[in-house]
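Thread: "does anyone have the structure for this chain?"

Original post by V.I.:
We have the sequence but no experimental structure in hand. Need at least a predicted one for the grant figures.
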Amino acid sequence: MERLVTVGRYSNPAEARIVQGLLNSRGIECCILDELSAAYTPLAVGGIRLAVRQGDLERATKILSEKKA
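Reply from O.Q.:
Generated one for you, tokens below.
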């Protein structure tokens, strides 16, 4: 099983879901981590994390940087 790495951190669950949908639409599987923990203790957890497989990190990072431009 390939290791998961964090590609983004979000304070808003809706934003995390939108970015997840964007990556999924480009063929990159990803998962949202710490969503419930962030709801109860946002400062302790560091936000909602979006994670991808290590092998997809470079491609996901490129897609997200294009989104910001």
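V.I.: this helps a lot. The two ends are 33 Å apart (CA to CA).
O.Q.: and The first strand starts at residue 4 and ends at 10.
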